[in-house]
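stage 2 :: seqdesign
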């Protein structure tokens, strides 16, 4: 599970540092002002590693109703073992379940299952290829698999048309400038990890470059200026966790620094992240510096901050709390000033937050 691995950060002795500021120009035709209206949000509950207790919680903004496991209640079956990612593309939501080897395609408004796509090895036991993350571009879904590949799937037919070899045990993906960036973690052979970022041209579907980043990279995000942010766990005690910034226009590494934070949730110039001390902080992607070391301003206390997401429509920031990692967690909604609006009980290890429009 991508967030449970954050426990490795507790072993690091790195000290988060600020990066030098520089002028940046926004990319043309990038994210415009959102005009949609939210229907609600989903929380993907990872469950316990090795147990088939993953779930998807839904909260309806209009009715204020909370459905603890909408996938189960709508489809009459559980989500599976170790749900790792969820994203909406068009009218569909894609739920990536690692140990079960499935990508469950559902109606984004109702959670009704449309298609369950299997990613299994051709062995006697049909073991999982361990799908980890998903990204989209021009009608195609790109799924990272722990066998060292990225599968290309048509979002209309749900058929895989191509398999692209990347680095070892790829984790998160992100699209920028017509390219797919793949963090090659190599976590299965820890401490002999991978330290690379594969760049795939989305027209030719070929790897055009392999970039050296920090050891054991796992999270990738992109800002409106075209910079790619790669967070790596490092290998204790030989290397620290780190943040590498890559210019997607040139694929050149702009900077690399020690960094103890988790994945970014970017809204405008602000990238929200959970640091090793459990606090929600803000990194400014224009100045390349942490500008707020404690976003929560009302004293709300989190036991085990686990995931963060910011809604560009409302400016709200949502933070999940895994509590003891074995029982139901919580999700907190904060306003723009860091004050708590409400909290909800969700499932075990709530790792991904997805907003759905009306």
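stage 2 :: out
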């Amino acid at each position: 599970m991508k967030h449970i691995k954050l426990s490795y950060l507790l072993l690091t002795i790195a000290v988060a540092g600020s990066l030098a500021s520089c002028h940046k120009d926004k990319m043309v035709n990038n994210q415009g002002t959102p005009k949609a209206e939210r229907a609600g949000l989903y929380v993907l509950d990872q469950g316990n590693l090795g147990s088939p207790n993953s779930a998807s919680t839904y909260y309806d903004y209009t009715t204020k109703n909370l459905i603890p496991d909408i996938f189960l209640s709508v489809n009459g079956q559980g989500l599976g073992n170790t749900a790792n990612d969820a994203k909406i593309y068009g009218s569909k939501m894609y739920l990536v379940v690692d140990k079960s080897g499935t990508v469950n395609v559902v109606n984004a408004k109702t959670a009704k299952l449309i298609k369950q796509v299997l990613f299994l090895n051709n062995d006697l036991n049909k073991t999982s290829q361990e799908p980890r993350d998903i990204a989209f571009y021009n009608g195609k879904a790109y799924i990272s698999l722990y066998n060292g590949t990225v599968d290309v799937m048509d979002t209309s037919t749900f058929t895989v048309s191509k398999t692209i070899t990347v680095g070892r045990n790829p984790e998160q993906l992100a699209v920028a400038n017509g390219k797919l960036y793949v963090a090659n973690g190599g976590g299965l052979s820890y401490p002999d990890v991978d330290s690379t970022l594969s760049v795939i041209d989305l027209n030719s579907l070929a790897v055009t470059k392999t970039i050296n980043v920090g050891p054991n990279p796992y999270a990738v995000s992109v800002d409106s200026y075209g910079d790619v942010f790669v967070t790596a766990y490092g290998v204790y005690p030989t290397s620290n966790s780190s943040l590498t910034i890559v210019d997607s226009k040139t694929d050149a590494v702009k900077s690399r620094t020690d960094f103890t934070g988790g994945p970014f949730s970017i809204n405008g110039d602000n990238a929200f992240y959970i640091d090793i001390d459990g606090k929600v902080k803000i990194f400014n992607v224009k100045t390349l510096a942490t500008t707020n070391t404690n976003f929560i301003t009302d004293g709300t206390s989190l036991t085990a901050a686990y995931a963060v997401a910011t809604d560009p429509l409302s400016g709200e920031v949502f933070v999940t709390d895994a509590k003891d990692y074995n029982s139901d967690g919580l999700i907190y909604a904060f306003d723009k000033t860091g004050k708590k609006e409400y909290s909800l009980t969700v499932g075990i290890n709530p790792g991904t937050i997805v907003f759905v429009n009306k």
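stage 3 :: structure notes
- Residues 1-23, 27-33 have pLDDT under 50 and may be disordered.
- The chain has one domain: 4-19+44-357.
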